[in-house]
Amino acid sequence: GGGMSSDEEGANVTSPNDNKLGFMKRLRSFRKSTVRRAQGREKNHSTTGTSPYSVLKDKLPAKYIQTTDVKKATLNPIWMEKFRFAIESGKTETFHLDIWDHDDEFSVFEAAKKLNQVQGFKGLNRYFKQIAQSARTNGSTEGSHIDDFLGSVNLKISEIPSTGIDKWFSLEGRSENSKVRGQIHIRAKLTTREDRGVPEEDNWTDIKQHVELLQIFIDHELNKFKGEKTHWSGELSRDAETILHQHAIQGDITDIQRSMCRWIAYSKKHLERTLSNRLLLSITEQLEQTWQSKSLSRDESDMLTEAFTLFLNYCFKQLTKIREIFPANNKISIERLEQLLTIIAKLHGMEIFHYCCPFQNDLQFEITSIIKAGTVEWFDRMVTQITKPRLRSDEDTLRNTSELVYVIIADAHSAVKYYNPIFESIVKMSFYNISFKKIDGKLMDIVIKALEEELGDQIHQSPSKLLENKESDAADILTFAASAEQISLSLFELYLSLHELAKYRIYVNETDRINLKITQYHNYFGAAVKKWLSVARNKILHRIERSVEKDKVEGSTTTAYNNKFTNSSLDVSNCFSQISQFWRRLAWPDIISSITYLIKITEDMANATRLYATLVEGKLNARKFYETNDLSYYTHELSLTVNDIERIRESFKTLPIELSYDKLLVAAEKFHPIAVVDEYRKKIETTVAMCSQEITDRIYQILSKVVTNVEMELKQNLFHIIEAPELISFQDATQPLFTFLEKRIFPYKEVLIRQNFTRLLELVWSVLIDQLLSEIEKASTVRSTSSYTRLTKALDSFVDYFNADEQYLPKDLLKTDKYKLIKKLLKYHTTDTHSLIKLYYQEKLHEQERAVIINQSSNLPDLGKLYCRAYYHLKEETLYVEIISCKNLKPCDSNGLSDPYVEVQLCPKFLYPHIEKQQTSIVKKTLNPSFNEKFEFRLTEKECNLSGGVIHFTVMDHDLMWSNDFEGEAFLEISKISGIPHESNSDTRPLDELKQIELSLTHPKAVRSRIIEILEVRVSDKTATEFVRRRRETENQ
């Protein structure tokens, strides 16, 4: 039965008689027993519970009988009472225990309480007779209360082991027929004590002896142990354990006292010889498990308090030197640290610790103070070690500071990766947060002092202000670079170390992070960045001069790289790459000042690019390149020159991209006005574009010498194509030009890089197009239609030749504006007169749409607007036109006004020969006349849909004395007028309901008409000459 744990239930029960022990006469042997609890007993009454009590007795002598208190109305009483009995002979004596149900307040219980009044064996007989009589008396009346027997337990003393017993015993009846049930939990053990003349309950001397014995045995085991003391398991020999066991029995040392002695002995020995933290943790856990509230005396508590204090002080001292005692790169030491913190945390969380050390500081307060003190001590020691007496110079100071920062970085890494997880897991604290904040201020004070020694008060100036102060370039670039380079490198190393350390601030909590001095580290390096940029600029300029000077491109002594470049271009290009690497490594944290520096770098590199192009071209010019007419000797040198310049131009052009300036500008838009950011962007892009274009122009200038050298022959070959008789085949006419190009231009393909060969072909193409356009535009030359057809075919063959399936010039470069004009002119020349006149009116419609832009570009005034409506009545076959008004006409009279009227005519005349011109009435003295006049034109549907048909509106100023003045003209395409049936026009509303049309007035002189020029040459064509005459008259008005 009884599956419940007596320890678990008993822990919550407090009996007023816990300390009420029955002490017997002092003998050499004792038996100590504790009646803890009983459960599951049989009910003896009709009531819901009984009031049990126990009687502990030995058979003889009777004075050894003891009784517990009565527990009212329960079947599961808990006593937790202790009794002590002197034993004569453990071999023959037996422990007997009865349990009774108490009913009469003056019955067996009261009789048993008078046991101490019994004297001698006769008195004992009378005592038991009284008990028996009381039992019979109470049982003689039906229903009266009696002391009911509930069961008993018998235990032979000889069966109790030296370690004692602690278990449940089943209750026994007086006979087999007895209905007894239930169990009782008894803890009993044997002890032997020497009579020292002190109270038996006082074992203070035994406890101190037990601690001393433990320390002796620990020393003995450690002396025997061969390995590291921290590897010792803490296990004592069997003999030592036996001695300690017997001593504990003889000294009546309780379990909690034994655990206390063990913890004191091992912890003190740890202070001397450093035992395993794992062992100490195990002993600490045992101490916690055996602790019961107030189970230690004052002396014992004081002794344990002293041990706790000594141990914690030792542990805290170790934590102060955490970096030395528990190095992060040692796995075993990290495990020891973890165990140490676990012990400290365990102690601070134990009830016994708070009982013994009620005034101990909070654990987190203690550890915080320790981390701070240890960090400061370690930091000061590092500063002393690193800055120990050396050769005194600014460079040493900077290098020492960099070394110190790198030490801090290593420490931060160790804290984040190793220490911090342990502290957060065990003591719920951030080791890194505490230590880094302590280091931050002290470190930055040292950094600022070092920078002030080197750069002075400049470190406190903003980057923009620093860059405004232009420093004069050293006369000797090499001397300047050499003097500043070493210090600049030391500064850069210090900056990089701080930049790396600043990354670790993310592990500091957000509240404290904003107050860290390391966050603003870059603000002190503005002057340093200026120095770095100056050193970089001057080194590159010197490198360019040396590289160009070393290049040998004469004859067979060339040092050309890959036969298309010299070593100088490779060298300078690498310098540009190093600038990009420098910027990426710099990783300047502040966006706006980053843009300022980026602009400075871009400007410096632009100047370097210009210098290189000037020096390389200068070497070519020094050899009379521009003065010679024979380029055969210069082919290779010319190619190397333009290739090198293009290579540096490309390196420079991609520099801002390499520097990620676009990403930087996008990021800046989040924190600064877009207008400010756009200004920065414009400045960078303008610098790059201007320099790139300047260098490109230089390349074209050098290559143009090649084209100039062959230009005469090129034009001659083109002239033969243009003027070739029709009897000569097209292939025969064009082949000489292609052969010439293959011989004189295409050999450069082998020595020029693709980009430069493309430029050379562009120049050749430009000469061909210019010459061809010049020939076509010659007004004095009259050619046949077949001649223009051949030229069209020749132009197409030129495009195919120079494109060569996209191997050479791309078609978008070939089809320039001049090319498109030539194509248009050739088309016009091969077009009949009527079609050209139609095209003319189509051009006028397009010009009208762009009238405002054309007038502005031609410096012509705005001629005003004309408002009208137009509608075609299909059934009546009538075109209705309403002239509504004009607005903002130009003044033609001396009074600043005009007398306007509008002429309306359908054009071209050959499409509508039967239609006569009509006009409005004259409106006097106005620039904004209102006409509101309607005109009718009889047209068939077919005539309305003729291609090229327009309504021509001419606004004139009436003059009585002289000829009428031209105000402006406008055109309206007839096929798009409302009412004319076609897919895009379904409006059938009456004329008055239609929306008025606004037309811009134009002047024929505003745009040069190529069609008029071509028609003008056709002197034998009457239609052409008449059309040109009328248009020329209008232009001249």
UniProtKB/TrEMBL annotation:
Classify the source by domain of life: Eukaryota
Q: Where is the MHD2 domain?
A: 731-840
Query: Do you know which Gene3D superfamilies this protein is assigned to?
Result: 1.10.357.50, C2 domain
Q: Which residues form the MHD1 domain?
A: 492-616
Q: Which SMART domains match?
A: C2
**Where are the residues of the annotated region Disordered?**
1-20, 34-54
Q: Which GO terms describe its cellular component?
A: late endosome; secretory vesicle
Q: Which GO terms describe its biological process?
A: exocytosis
InterPro entries from the UniProt entry: C2_dom, C2_domain_sf, Munc13_1, Munc13_dom-2, UNC-13_domain
Cellular localization per UniProt: Cytoplasm; Late endosome
Keywords assigned by UniProt, alphabetized:
Cytoplasm, Endosome, Exocytosis
Name residues in a coiled coil.
none
Q: Which residues form the C2 domain?
A: 8-135, 857-987
Composition bias (Acidic residues) maps to 1-10
Q: Which family does it belong to?
A: Belongs to the unc-13 family.
**What is the protein name stated in its UniProt record?**
BAI1-associated protein 3
Species in which this protein is naturally found: Adineta steineri
